[in-house]
């Protein structure tokens, strides 16, 4: 009986001590939160000529504003391209896309791998979710454009032009929320796309980890020969006081070069793959157009069997492989770089490529 009472007292003491620890933790959390709120309140009371406000104004004027203008310009270009996409026949679009893939695919090897992984992981559902996001985004765009013309006070000046920045952001957010008629459907689409995105990044990280592991293994085998060759001249250059840095510099340099070479080899592999895929798409598009117009039926029987069946003919391969070889050669000779004006036209895709590389490689 005494042992039972003692156990109950110990349990009660542990509960009391646990509650006290939670209260201390809540007090620390509230204290940190209140400190953050005090800091924000202090920012509101800053004078107009304070360094923080001047720096923020400079950043918005020369940093954010030009970025917004450039983004709006590219959005306008994408809208025009989408209108062209709706008008052009699918075979013409396939030829255009295949040409870009054949001649520029190696530059965007991470983006191409991400697309392939997304198609395999997302499938048909991914396209449905993208259509949902596009439809809701279009509704928001239409509602925002109509809102820009509203003049409720009839002073011949649009109401949005008379709002402060903070009021305009809140107002546009409300307009966007009203325009979305089925927020749960949009939420499901965004969550599904985010899941696909996370799975793609994880897949690419795994593939890159294997490449890095092989590259680092090669670097470890080359460290000793490199130290024997580069060690003496580096010791002479750095002097006796810094000789202990020589092995570290050589080892780090060898590993950096190995990873760079591995990435370059991956770009070569992607260029070869994209060249073949792009050449095949070009050939298929050309023969589909020729078949639709009846040109294939006019070719000699010795060259093309009647009726024409691309699966039983080597004519498409005869066109696809030379185009693929030309695209691969041009990518290799250009060093996977884009010349003017392609570097400006493909700047959004280049930005996406480097964002993916940063997320995958780090």
Describe this structure in words.
- With 362 residues, the chain is mainly alpha-helical.
- Among the domains are: 1-45; 88-127 and 198-361, no CATH class.
- Helices cover 80% and strands 0% of the residues.
- It has 10 helices and no strands.
- The protein has helices at residues 2-44, 51-87, 90-104, 109-147, 165-179, 183-238, 246-292, 315-333, 342-345, 347-361.
- Helix 6 (183-238) crosses helix 7.
- It is flat and about 80 Å long.
Please give a quick description of this structure:
The chain has about 350 residues and is mainly α. It has 10 helices and no strands.
Which characteristics define this entry?
362 residues, mainly alpha
Say how many strands there are. 0
Question: What's the helix-strand series?
Answer: HHHHHHHHHH
Distance between the termini: 62 Å
Largest sheet: none
Helical percentage:
over 70%
Return Rg in Å: 31 Å
Question: What's the average pLDDT?
Answer: 77
- Low-pLDDT runs of 5+ residues are none
CA-based shape: flat
Strand content: under 5%
Number of helices: 10
Structural class: mainly alpha
């Amino acid at each position: 009986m005494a042992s039972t009472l003692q156990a109950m007292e110990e349990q009660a003491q542990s509960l009391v001590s646990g509650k006290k620890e939670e209260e201390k933790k809540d007090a620390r959390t509230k204290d940190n939160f209140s400190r953050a709120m005090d800091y924000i309140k202090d920012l509101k009371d800053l004078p107009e000529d304070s360094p923080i406000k001047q720096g923020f104004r400079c950043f918005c004027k020369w940093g954010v504003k030009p970025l917004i203008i450039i983004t709006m310009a590219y959005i306008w270009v994408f809208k025009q391209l989408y209108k062209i996409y709706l008008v052009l026949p699918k075979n013409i679009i396939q030829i255009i896309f295949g040409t870009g893939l054949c001649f520029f695919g190696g530059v965007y090897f991470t983006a191409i791998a991400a697309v392939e992984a997304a198609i395999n992981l997302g499938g048909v559902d991914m396209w449905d979710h993208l259509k949902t996001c596009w439809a809701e985004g279009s509704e928001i765009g239409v509602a925002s454009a109509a809102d820009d013309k509203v003049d409720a006070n009839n002073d011949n000046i649009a109401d949005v032009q008379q709002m402060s920045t903070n009021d305009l952001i809140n107002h546009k957010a409300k307009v966007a929320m009203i325009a979305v008629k089925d927020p749960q459907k949009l939420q499901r689409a965004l969550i599904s796309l985010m899941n696909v995105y996370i799975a793609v990044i994880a897949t690419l990280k795994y593939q890159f980890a294997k490449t890095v592991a092989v590259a680092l293994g090669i670097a470890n085998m080359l460290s000793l020969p490199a130290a024997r060759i580069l060690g003496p001249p580096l010791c002479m250059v750095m002097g006796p006081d810094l000789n202990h840095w020589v092995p570290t510099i050589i080892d780090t340099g060898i590993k950096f070069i190995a990873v760079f070479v591995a990435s370059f080899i991956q770009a070569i592999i992607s260029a070869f793959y994209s060249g073949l895929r792009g050449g095949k798409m070009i050939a298929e598009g050309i023969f589909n157009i020729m078949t639709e117009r009846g040109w294939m039926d006019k070719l000699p029987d010795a060259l093309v069997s009647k009726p024409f069946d691309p699966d039983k003919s080597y004519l498409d391969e005869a066109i696809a492989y030379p185009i693929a070889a030309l695209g691969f050669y041009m990518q290799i000779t250009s060093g996977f770089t884009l010349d003017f004006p392609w570097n400006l036209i493909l700047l959004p895709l280049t930005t996406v490529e480097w964002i993916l590389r940063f997320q995958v490689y780090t």
